[in-house]
Amino acid sequence: MNPTPPHDDASGAPRRRWRAGPLACGLLVGAALALAPGAVGAVCAGQCQTIAGNPLTVKASADTALQVYFAGDTAGQVFPSTNDHGNSGTYVAVDGRLFGPAGTSGAVPYAEVSQSGVAGNGSPSAPFTVVTVLDLPGTGLRLTETVTMVSGQPYFRIDRRLANLGGAPKSASVFAYADLYLRGSDRGFGYFDPAARAVGGQTPTGDFFQIFVPITPAAHFEEGGFGTVFSRISGVAVGGPPLADIVLPPPDPANVVDNGAALQWDARVPARSSRILASFWSFGVTPQVPRAPSPEGPDLSRTIPRPQTIRNGPARVTVPGRISLGSLRRSRCVRTKVVSARRARVLVTIFSGIRSRRLFGAELVTFRRPGKKIVCIPVPRRARTFDARTQLRAAVGVALGAVDRVGEPREPRLAPVIRPIRLVP
Hints:
By secondary structure, the chain is mainly beta. The chain is built from three helices and 26 strands.
């Protein structure tokens, strides 16, 4: 264990330094005295949110840095263990620069845009959620990071949406990184699960583990001396080799090091599009390797998942029967097939809500003769906040005849036919 927070490892790479003046030190001492045994700190430096679950409490800073407390421990699981702003987070290498949390040596700090409060109640149907939005200055990229946790689970999920707001494609490498502090031990062996390609660390006695588990398949991984791993990340930004796909496993005592771990994703993001790169971060006295499907799902603008057909008079409209939240959040519109056996105007609407109909989107399709048309109903920005409890429905209304003729009776209008669309995680 290290006597003071800032120090170097064998690579010579310094850790993020944290200094407190006399007033801050006095406040920290007072806070420490006020904490009951098993409690964790309540305040982060700068803007952050506290996700208080069981067995994990997560301090999510607005620059993606995370500190994690396990089972009521007063020491964090990320170095420095006494600071709620842990030496961890999401890093992005793009255009020859490395972007990361504030205070990281050699990294350009993100431009913080916003951070939500903690939503949800921690149940499986309404997990705790914090959404942080950051810009990467001068790149046209925006990072939206969503931390999701269910109370009772020894892990949480991080979804990183990298959006390209510019007019040309961008290639970037995205990293999940942490300087591990293994429940009181600043040194440990590596851990690797070959089936999940999950990487992390374990105490020298093998009685505590923390592990990065990729959901979106990662291109590379590495565990080793914390400075060695981070130096590799920094090198990728300037054209160096990727993470080395290595760990330092037991039982060789030479493999017990002051360790860090990281995952690497390589993403090409088209203009005005986005990619989601997701992982779990787990903690436990035994290895915890949760499994989950990729969060991206199909592109709803190109396919109709679980298609269902809604019939109303001469019209047949095919819409999704089930939509994953990941698909909804990454797609710009929902593909819909509209068929009419005669002249008609067909209004296709998707809306949310049970008693009140909050408009999701709508398209009016005019047929001057029988035919088939493909339309795409835009996904509104607020749909990104939907969860699996959201009631989503599709309605098909029909007016016979392509136009209303002036001076003649209005063409008959058929009552809308409504069907549910199921939202799933």
